[in-house]
Amino acid sequence: MTFSPPFAHAPRRQVLAPSAWRPTSLDRLLIGTPHYPEHVDDSYLERDAARMAECGFNVIRLAEFAWHLMEPREGAFDFSLFDRAIEVFARHGISTVMCTPTATPPRWLTMAYPEVLRVDTHGRPARHGSRQQADTTSPVYREHSRRITQAMANHYRDHPHVIGWQTDNELNTTASESYAPGTAREFRRYLSARYQTIAALNHAWGTDFWAQRYDSFEQVDLPFELAPSFANPTQVLDYHRFLAWATAAFQHDQVAILRATNPGWFIFHNLGQLRDIDFRGEFTTDLDFLGYDVYPFLKDEIERTGCHAHHQAFMADVMRGYAGNFIVPEQQSGLGSQPGFATPVPEEGEMQRMAMSSIARGADGVLFFRWRPAHFGAEIYWNGILDHDDVPRRRYEEARRTGTTLQRIGSRILGTSVRMDVGIAGADYDNQEAHTTYPLGLPSPQGASLPLHRHCFEQGLPCGFLHPEDDLSRLKVFFVPHWVIWKDEWTERLERFARAGGTVIIGARTGTRDANNHVIRDTAPGRSLSALCGITVEEFGLLPPLDGLGLTDKLNRPEGALVLPTRPAESSRRAHQLRVGDAVLPAAHAYELLKVRDDAADQVTVAGRWDTRFVAGQPAITIRRVGEGRVVYVGTYVTDALAALLLDAVLADLPIKPLLPHVPAGVEVTLREGEGRSLLFILNSRAEPVVVPDVPAGLELMGDRPHAAGALRLSAYGCAVIQVSP
Ligand code: GAL
User: Fold this and answer.
1) Which of 604, 625, 650 lies at the terminal end of a domain, its last residue?
2) Residue 559 among the catalytic residues
3) Residue 245 lies in a domain
4) 121 and 149 share one domain
5) Number of structural domains, the chain?
6) How far is the C-alpha of 640 from the C-alpha of 643, rounded, in Å?
7) What are the backbone dihedrals phi and psi of residue 159, each rounded to the nearest 5 degrees, phi first?
8) Residues 387 and 329 in one domain
9) CA 445 to centroid of ligand 1, rounded, Å
10) Residue 484: predicted pLDDT
11) Residue 1 · residue 90 · CB < 8 Å
12) Which residues line ligand 1 (CB under 6 A)?
């Protein structure tokens, strides 16, 4: 059988700058699975390849944990296992994405160069025996990473079936920090390049607090946790800026080698826990597109977020906000487990529904994790498409249905991007990190945007995340969820957006710190935002949670720290309520008392007031008319009730409407559009069938049949993609 792979040495399409609206540079939708030939003998390969071809797969991903096989001794390379696998899969029309294997260094390396091991905040070095034990800030480790990358790149330089690369595997997922002496040296080098003089560092870190002033960079240390009390928040922020810089530099070494060796390869990374990575920085501009591993059940377990369908949608939107369309290099297929945890199992139909949800929100490829479970190691119960006994059962059938459908309709999806009418400010590394250095028990900017996002998800309003420096012109609403660090040039962009008819919503605490993480000396929310919103913030304070537990329970307290006793009854009396029109609703997290500026009195209306005790009657939500649009300031956090009230009542004249007139509970709707196509994704995230009324006419791509305008019936977890008639 002759086969010419789709991508072989295709010239790289011009990669546009990262933007939430950017499609990928792929020339076909990727469908496939990671494969581990090192976990089976060669007799499996032919059968695996034939079955994958039957599933419509066009790609496998190989080798991310196989450094020890490819370089069994320092400088001695052997790629024969992977060469054999690539050939077998290629004969069945399946191309290969290779991975640099740097998440798992071989034992000879950690024996010969123990200085590459991470050290935790208590001084304990990581050990060989799991993964991500090597410190990516280590120059010694970087040298080895370059060596193995160059050797692999040289070996596969002209290979017609190796079409692209994944760098490492989920950088920073297991651990991102290190407190090794070598890490401290690199941190000092980073600081001295950043600040040039120690006086500048002393100023930025505010070292006159608690007598921290330094005379030279050599005196500066890493921010050890509780040694013995809290570290300087700007020192902590700079440590995380350093980690993000070092992660990008580590990846850049590999990308530079791969690009120089074969510019036809596409390169991405598979993101996991999203720690210590600046997604709008070099980490992302180095890549063709991002990858995001989809394990919503796991996240549900860890973060107790409740509905995994919404959580998956939320994270996909966060991901698209970094750099536009992305791929899913891993998606959970069955029971997920490591020795310390186990997740629920995706039910029949959910594997497909999850894949379609990612695609509906900007994925241009999905690989199911994994083809079959391992029989040994720390993931023996992480099930795959096949089971341990290699018998194809319901997950195989579902992969086959999904894969063959996507193979058929993929070209209609590629090139489109996801419609957003409501934009949420996202993708700002400094803001996410600055919050973490001093959270005050408040939700992070991302966490605080959950209620508004959930409202849009449930109503079928097209929504997503994007940075204020991205193209806002296609939005109708832009919400800034409590970004403490603010740049005046962003105010100008927001003002332009409002003047042209947009609605800006600014959340409490925005603009209250500067780039050094210091509290600003002007009245909040700072000069430019205050002028834009037409208000000042006269006072702020925290509110106890609505369940009446005391505030101190919410603060990120280290173990052993002093705990103040709280009485639920007393703390719940300290909750405040808001009055918005006729509605009275409880407020959460924080209150601010607003004052309308004299110079804006004729443009500002008060849309909501505090309604309890000493704050009663004071402005809590204001709206300033700006050009054709307006700027809303919300002096508290947006709860589920407030999100609904804001979009449905306070801003009822917004030019936004749900993508369908009636979106039944549990139905997810998005629109991908571009290149003359409008694709309406309608997905049932529930185990019961549903009838969706008033669906417009078009061609239903998954079933390949026309849909006449009217009701659409979806089975349990059923999916439809309607190419809407023009
Ligand atoms: C991902 C990781 C995979 C595998 C999977 C299931 O985070 O990239 O290697 O571990 O989780 O645990």
Assistant:
1) 650
2) no
3) yes
4) yes
5) 3
6) 5
7) -75, 120
8) yes
9) 26
10) 97
11) no
12) 169-170, 173, 272, 293, 330, 338, 369, 379, 382
The answer to whether residues 558 and 639 belong to one domain is yes
Q: What is the CATH number of the domain that holds 152?
A: 3.20.20.80
Residue 299, CA distances (Å) to 5, 336, 428 in order: 36, 11, 22
* Pair 607, 713 in one domain: no
What's residue 572's pLDDT? 54
Q: Which helix (H) or strand (E) holds 667?
A: strand 667-674
566 found inside a domain: yes
117 with 235, same domain: the answer is yes
Tell me, yes or no, whether 506 and 383 share the same domain: no
Question: Residue 387 and residue 389: Cα distance in Å, rounded?
Answer: 5
In the predicted structure, residue 167 carries a pLDDT above the cut 50 = yes
Of 170, 372, 385, which is best to mutate to test ligand 1, by the most ligand atoms within 8 angstroms of its C-beta?
A: 170
pLDDT at 9: 36
In the block, tokens 């300033």 appear at 624
pLDDT digits (tens, 9 = 90+) for 551-564: 444 444 444 444 44
CATH code at position 690: 2.60.40.1180
User: In this model, does residue 543 exceed pLDDT 90?
Assistant: no
Structure tokens that stand for 630 in this block: 């307006």
Q: What CATH number corresponds to the domain at position 478? A: 3.40.50.880
What's the pLDDT tens digit per position in 590-623? 999 999 999 999 999 999 999 988 999 999 999 9
The token pair that represents 203 in the structure block:
């100023």
**Cα Rg, the chain, nearest whole Å:** 26
Range of the domain at 291: 30-410
Residues 182 and 328 in one domain: yes
**25 lies in some domain:** no
pTM (2 d.p.): 0.95
The pLDDT tens digits for 633-659 are 999 999 999 999 999 888 889 999 999
Of all atoms in ligand 1, which is nearest to the CA of residue 270?
8
* Smallest CA separation from ligand 1 atom 2, residue: 170
Selected catalytic residue, list 330, 592, 668, 700: 330
Residue nearest to atom 7 of ligand 1 (CA): 272
Residue 503: both structure tokens together: 């609605």
Residues 700 and 613 in one domain: no
Instruction: Give the pLDDT band (50/70/90) at residue 545.
Output: low
Query: Among residues 499, 501, 385, 484, which one has the least CA distance to residue 442?
Result: 484
Neighbour tally for 72: CB within 10 Å: 12
Q: How far is the CA of 369 from the centre of ligand 1 (A)?
A: 8
Q: Which of 423, 540, 523 is nearest to 481 (CA)?
A: 423
Structural domain contains residue 63:
yes
CA of 170, closest atom in ligand 1: 8
pLDDT at 441: 86
Query: CB-based burial of residue 34 (10 Å sphere; 0-12 exposed, 13-18 middle, 19+ buried)?
Result: buried
